[in-house]
Model the fold of this input.
Amino acid sequence: MPDKTEFIAIIQENEGLIYKVTKVYTNSREDAQDLYQEIVYQLWKSFGTFRNESKISTWMYRIALNTSIAHLNKEKKKRGHVEIDEGLLNKTDHSDTIMDERSEMLFGLIKKLSDIEKGIILLYLEGKSYEEIAAITGFTASNVGTRLERIKQKLISQIN
Done:
């Protein structure tokens, strides 16, 4: 049986990465809360099998991204498609500063990417190396580099 206290401490130390993943893969606060709970549940189910062969954050990102993609696929089957609420894309959580506006604009553009592209760019923005992104996504490091360049070009073309 996994150690509950250790698990809770790990979740608390790394909950920011879960929130970032839920922000990219959901369109409402309620959906984000549901997805957050699902990710934590999946992490708990897998916690006993974590072998410390990678960083805990790498393992958590992999589970969070896989859970998010599965959650999206389930929602798409239920509804037929997922609508992006334009009001949420332009909403800021904090004071209306230039950085908040740019951040929200970037998240809005990221939401338009494919599920895999969202995950890769999110990991890149977190400062993960190509090797770390490859370990999380299952792609090769060179494939990650190629995909990132294409994603960047796609985002730049949407800004211009």
